[in-house]
Amino acid sequence: MAAPPTDIVVADAAGVLYQPQLLAALKEIDFREPTKVAVVTIEGENGTDQINSDVLELARAQHPEWLSADEQKWADGLFIFAVDPIARKVGTYMGEDRKVSLSKQEAIQESTKDLFREAQWTEGTIAGVKKAAKLINQPWYLSAGFIITSSIVGGLAVIGIGTRAGIRANNRRKAAEHLKNGDAGYSSVSLALDVTELNAKTIPGESSYGSLVLEKYRLFMTEYLQARELNEQSHAFSKKDLSTAGNVKVVKKYAELAAQLDTLDDVIGDTNTLLNRYAGWEGAWDRQVAPLRADLDQLPPLLEKSEAKGLPSTVALASLHAHLTQRLEQLGADFQSSRISPDAALDTLRGMNEELTEALKQHSTAMIDQFTKTKSEKATMEKAMGSTRQQDAYGRQGTILGSVYSWSMFYPVHSFNVGYASGRSEVSSDRSQASSSGSSSGYGSSGGSFSGSGSSSSF
């Protein structure tokens, strides 16, 4: 049986998950029975072991539908995956009809830990839910015990063959996914190629942004020819060819290049529409301001963090939030009424992004200085925050500003949240390497008589 989640609920209190990627991936995961999936992140404290009770408290306060009718167990048909990036705990909880053994719960948790240790919170969560889907309601003949026994009977040679077959199958799976994504992007670009060329021809070259995007278009055609070659090469591979890692890399390169081109042709279209004020310019403008709007929406939770209270940088950010929110609305009104030119509007938008970036840099320094105790810890956090900032800013390349300027111009609020949690988690891990990593299945004194199936462990 293959049943995608009946519902997906994300409660990201720690602010470390990239939900577009997470939700898209979870919708593609098949359980053996229809299952509701809840993903929870907890913003705990270093050295604590209360993720089980925190998840239960969240359910009682905000999601009573996660509990059974008598509120003594988890609801049927439910699987909860939880992670605390600060206390470095991962937990799994489930209804009685989805219950698995403690060893299988540990296997689900173990599947995430290498990724979580690298602060890959979204990827680790996806891995955990995938593993859970594999183990929940698993038939006896697919159990690890049965397979291990069969393997022993079959001999070590069978294990070796099975391992190699598994690697080849995994390579083919990855290649098929890359090929599917690459074909989607390449097809979109190819179908719109004439339109993209027409858009480029009418972009005003005297505009500073127009000239910068036209430079991108010149590279666009060269890269499109490269994508065509990779398309032909990828489709020429046989099933056997796609079992090898080297050929998977070729298909992956094809998918990545096709995605970049698909993004860039949208930027070329928006540039032409916006600079010339053609029909539909309102949608193009909305796409340009969307990243800054998202940042402003995410600022209040960042400022409400307990460790941020009282810092001068927090006060400055709060003031800037109100200021930029008002200015962004006024900028849109000015542009709509033609009181400001497209170039001037984009210049103003760039300046607003730069103001927020500078304020977030100062806030980052203040938060790091407050939490860390040594130069080494400070370097660890700075590295974590810099890394996630680069990854997040890359996603802004679908805008005119993101396309023509370096990623270092932007500091997305989401990237600040993820980077801070990741850096703090890594520092906390260094401080408590001697702590136990054993499994915990209790809900503490606050749990009362609650006996729902679930456990947690450290990473």
UniProtKB/TrEMBL annotation:
This is DUF5129 domain-containing protein. Residues 10-349 form the DUF5129 domain. Keywords: Membrane, Transmembrane, Transmembrane helix. The chain crosses the membrane at residues 140-163. Gene3D superfamilies: 3.10.310.50. Residues 423-459 are annotated as: Disordered. Residues 430-443 have a biased composition (Low complexity). The keyword Membrane applies. InterPro entries: DUF5129 (IPR033435).
